[in-house]
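README, section 4: Worked example with a bound small molecule

Sections 1 through 3 covered apo chains. Here we extend the same pipeline to holo records, where the ligand is supplied as SMILES alongside the sequence. The molecule in this example is fe (ii) ion. Nothing else about the input changes; the structure line simply encodes the ligand pose together with the chain.
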Amino acid sequence: MNTRNPLDAFNLDKYLRAAGGTRPEAFDWSEPGSRLDDDAIFCLGYMMDIESHTIIYLRELLSTSVAEDASITAFLACWAYEEFFHSMTLKRLLESQGVSIDDERFAKLRQRKPADVFQQRLGAIASRMTRHFPAIHMSWGAINELSTLTGYQALMARANHPLVTTVLSRIIKDERRHFSFYYNQARARLRPRAAQLLTSFALRRFWRLVGSPVRGGSDALRVCAYLFGDRVGAEHLAQVDATIARLPGIEWFNLVSRYSPLRSECCNDRPVGCRAVRGAH
Ligand SMILES: [Fe+2]
Ligand SMILES: [Fe+2]
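The generated complex, written as structure tokens:
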């Protein structure tokens, strides 16, 4: 029997030593290359907004019992730092393409009432009712980090743009480490059957594609249509599902693939903006 602690698979000390911001100053912006098309610009803006919203997400997270786990909070401190610089670097990338971003954009985003009821209201309550709440969050984080890095990879391929490739390749390295932390945490914390049932319920009921609660469902679908609108894109989404489905007790996981524009039921369970966008794709 394998008695190895799955949490050992992620070396937290090593991560804490290596963690650092992917700062805009790390890149040479003197060769902006050809102008990206409007869809690529839209995707970069969506991703920048997700990254910048991390600090708000962290605020909500720290109001739950997750804040009592020293190993998780050590990771989260560096994670938020890295995500902040992802947003700054994507902002600089957009500016290199002639898109100006003012701080009002971030302020407005934070003033909007997120559609994500789970994170906003139920998270804090649920965490006081069950010791298995971290299993939900770690699974949630693994899905979102893997979805994010899959999106960055797709954008690199779609844009086929040297500067985008340079910047996103560096960001993806960070996202892989984030994913590894969440995934290993989830694998360990999903051992109890109660944690599996609770996590399955929360994901089925509340999970939406990363960024959708912040930017809205129609924007999320536009991003998916651009990044994953063909057969290859659908396979990439299915790979995300397959990886997450290897976690204990959530073998059923198939939620990311539902965002494939090729699925006939594409819009059946979208929370907002679905019909409008369906008309557009
Ligand atoms: Fe990020
Ligand atoms: Fe990340």
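What to look for in the output: Residues 266-281 have pLDDT under 50 and may be disordered. The pocket of fe (ii) ion (ligand 1) is lined by residues 51, 83, 86, 171, 175 (CB under 6 Å).

Section 5 describes how to batch many such records.
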